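Amino acid chain
________________
===
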Amino acid sequence: MSLTELLILISVIAVITFLLRIVPFILPKKIIQNDFMLSFGKKLPPGIMIILFLYSAGLFEEHIQRSFVFSSFLAAIPVILFFVWKRNATISIFIGILSFYFFYSYLKV
């Protein structure tokens, strides 16, 4: 990839990102306060988190390792429990990382 192509790519990404960030301020409140948009905004983050979890668990890989997938699902349990209890995403992520490495290191399935 040449320098010109790289600069064009970065420019396109920057413009698209800017447009996506500015759209909520440009749209009329009638569209933003629509029931569909409000429900979509509430349901989108959990849906994205589920997709990210399934992807990171290795379910979409061609060479699935049982211990990796098993450890991922076991590590999700303390993350969900702690997040429901304390509502702190940062500590929940930290607990998830620690529990995943614990399960992956010590539980060989």
Remarks:
- Residues 1-33 form one domain.
